[in-house]
Amino acid sequence: MASRRLQLTGAALRRGPEVTISVDGRAVRAHEGETVAAALFAEGVSATRRTVGGDPRGVYCGMGVCFECLVVVDGIPNTRACMTWVREGLDVRLQDGLGPADHAARAAEAGPAR
Ligand code: FES
Predict the structure, then answer these.
(1) Going by C-beta distance under 8 Å and a sequence separation of 6 or more, which residues neighbour residue 55?
(2) Are strands 47-50 and 95-96 parallel, antiparallel or unpaired?
(3) Which domains does the chain have, with CATH numbers?
(4) Which residues of the chain fall below pLDDT 50?
(5) CB 3.0–4.6 Å: which of 25, 45, 82, 109 could bond 40 by disulfide?
(6) Atom of ligand 1 nearest to the CA of 67
(7) Residues 6+ apart with CB under 8 A from 111
């Protein structure tokens, strides 16, 4: 029986024009037609937010149902990364609780680097 797996290389994979988005202030390359979630995965970011209690969360359903992938987009918190298309200049912030992530607080909680 022949494989039914999609071939995602070569001519079968056509990416949109390249755009630059900002992720927590860092320039990140993405392509039109990709979601913020895809761009974050490509950057190695799997936890898009932390709950009010501090637990990491990320893409779960990938189709807009679970609300686990929330990020802050252009200053708007609670935006679903899996349902938001990238575009040039998009400002994405990982989310802590109900607002942008506080990376200084995260680093302080983690303690000194070893
Ligand atoms: S991963 Fe479920 S809403 Fe985005």
Answers:
(1) none
(2) parallel
(3) 17-110 (3.10.20.440)
(4) 1
(5) 45
(6) 3
(7) none
**How far apart (Å, rounded) are the C-alpha atoms in residues 93 and 89?**
13
Task: Give the pocket of ligand 1 (CB within 6 Å).
Answer: 59-62, 64-69, 80, 82
Nearest atom of ligand 1 to the alpha carbon of 61 = 2
CA distances from 80 to 11, 68, 101 (A): 30, 8, 15
* pTM of the complete model: 0.83
Mutate-to-test residue for ligand 1 from 48, 63, 71, highest number of ligand atoms within 8 A of CB: 63
| Cα Rg, the chain, nearest whole Å | 16
In a 3-state reduction of DSSP, which class is residue 92? strand
**Ligand 1 centroid vs 95 CA: distance in angstroms?**
14
